[in-house]
Amino acid sequence: MTQPTDIRGEHLPTALCLAASDVPVLPLRAGKGPFGNCPACVQNACGGRPNMKVPGPCVCPHPCHGWAAATTDLHTINSSTWARAWREAAAVAYHPGGAGLTVVDLDNAEAIAWARASLPATRTVPTTRGEHWLYEGAMQSANAVLPGVDIKSTMAYARWLGPGTGTITALPDAVRALAVKEPTTVRPTALTVPALVGGGKCPHRTRSYLDRGIAMAEQRITAASSAVHATVYRTFLAVLSTHGRCGCLTDAHTARLFTAAQAKGESPRHCTDAWTNALTTLGLSHG
């Protein structure tokens, strides 16, 4: 028998009301964090909903995986599998991007002063330390875009702290611009590799042989779904072992590999370290 709603915690009625208005919701535990994975999903054994590009509901019936568990399905929210979470919940959270919203989270008085001077007025919600400014429109989420300023929209959650005051307005370009990162300048380690012993000829029959090798290396890095740093190192090692002794590799080739690695989240420093370590392993480093 389904348990009565009134013993499932004070936050369930709020969640049901929000979901009925097409706002995807999930329970938050004490400390404002989401509930952890259930045994079936521990360590993302289920495939990892946080990597999905769309909001929940989670594949499993429990409120797992943070923002990706947010749902507007009233049956799911009021189900027995979510009951314990609601009883223990400290707050209700919602997925702003799933509701077509963006929250500019202003964490202190200085951030609020900046918003009042720089952004168009919109609906505001008081928080413990500052304010949430709500805009209509979804965008990429980003943390610490300015001191005390976070953006919560797609693939993120925000606490529900009430409807707020004021008229909600369209998401301005000034907010979208905050999440745009400056392109990283790729500065690979300069290549200085010894010539073949005895002055042997280059083993590459055609230029396309080298180009195909670099393209395959880029694809291998791009396709990595886990252990990215290790994949990058092994790929660099493979490229250098095949193409690193004849002097045909150029900075342009290296930049392509570094760009592919950085697109997977590697920092320029990690790229440089991995390249240097591969050179050293193969005895190609003069350092």
Overall pLDDT level:
81
- What string, H for helix and E for strand, traces the elements in order? HEHHEEHEEEEEEHHHHH
Proportion in helices: 25-40%
Unreliable sequence segments: 1-7, 49-58, 182-186, 189-200
Give a count of the beta strands, DSSP E runs of length 2 or more.
9
Largest sheet: 6 strands, mixed
- Cα distance, first to last residue? 72 Å
Write down the Rg. 25 Å
Structural class of the secondary structure composition? alpha+beta
Bin the strand percentage.
5-15%
Which overall shape is indicated by the principal axes computed on the Cα atoms? elongated
Count, helices: 9
Which features characterize this protein?
single chain; elongated; 287 residues; alpha+beta; three-stranded antiparallel β-sheet; six-stranded mixed β-sheet; disordered N terminus; 9 strands
Commentary on this structure:
There is one protein chain. With 287 residues, this protein is of the alpha+beta class. Helices cover 33% and strands 13% of the residues. The chain has helices spanning 12-20, 74-77, 80-88, 109-118, 173-176, 207-223, 228-243, 251-263, 268-281; strands at residues 25-28, 91-94, 101-106, 123-126, 131-136, 142-146, 149-152, 158-159, 169-170. The strands form 2 sheets. Strands 3, 4, 5, 6, 7 and 9 form a 6-stranded mixed beta sheet that branches. The chain has a 3-stranded antiparallel beta sheet with strand order 1-2-8, with helices on one face. The longest helix has 17 residues, at 207-223. The chain starts with 11 loop residues before the first helix and ends in a 6-residue tail after the last helix. Residues 1-7, 49-58, 182-186 and 189-200 have low confidence and may be disordered.
